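haha ok so turns out i had the wrong file open the whole time. this is the CORRECT one, sorry everyone. sequence first:
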Amino acid sequence: MTADTSPLGVLDPRRWVRSAPAPESGRVGRRRASDRLLDLGIYVALIVLVVYFAQASPYFLTQRNLLNVGAAVAVTGVLAAGMTIALIAGQLDLTVGANIALTSVVVSLAIESLGWSTPFAVLLGLAVGVGIGLANSVLVVAVGINSIIATLAMGIVLRGVALISTGGQTKPLTDLTLPDFLQLRPLGVPTTVWILVTVFVVCWVVLTFTPVGWHIYGVGGNPSAALRAGIRTKWLYTGVFVTTGVLAAIGGIITTGTSSSGGPNYANGAEFDVLTAVLLGGIGLAGGSGRIQRTLAGVLVIGVLNNGLTLLSVSSYYQQLARGAVFVLAVVLGAIGERRRAR
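then structure:
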């Protein structure tokens, strides 16, 4: 019996998937070429958009504008990183928008109504994210409800709590410690961009180089095999939902600081942009596959598209049309990717 040579001593989840019969030799080259094109497609799309808008507007490639693009997609990017981990594990978290709203309300009320210092209010906001993640995991893991249904219902509850807590009103911040912190530009780069980069680097390291990352891929690819291999799948799912909850709470804290307020209607429909970015990045809905760096490319595609259309003074109606078209494209690419993985 040969020794297991999997990285870090964990089972390679690729071994848990039944091998498909070899395709006919005449079709191998064409399939490989099309697969390679799809793999690189998101990066090609990003480059094409950058080149087009650089030619169309003299302001696009300026340092100031590019940093603005990064700052504009910071919240979407942080949420997309968490959604990527959830989808790789075979789960989906649709509470992220409501999580942002509730976190922003909690942080603003803690500072303005309770007189808490900003650091403690931020810690409370992160605790809210942990609590939401645990609540989602109870519904999905303990009760056994499908994650789409469970998190959709939980999102409605969270939004309702935020509305009740504020009477449906936005709560402005008079203490500007948090906004001032987020307006800092270490090395000339906005703090929100540093947060975005840090989140993606940490998630990339965890998914690529740690046993936890391998287990996330394994559970998403074949839950029963992962369970037989000794992976504590329930605890892993709990950790995944807590991660998405905390990252959404970070998004809520950023939203509170950049808007200098907390609002129960913030991030309404945020799931749309997040899922668009993740699907554009080729993260499969079936679980067990995907690379977080591709999600980052998907986030940047959305940011560049929105920024470029704004610079060209395109009507908001057409911008909405463009966003919808990109989402449809993301869904189509996701379906194609699922068929590739099923071959």
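The chain has 14 helices and two strands.
again sry for the mixup
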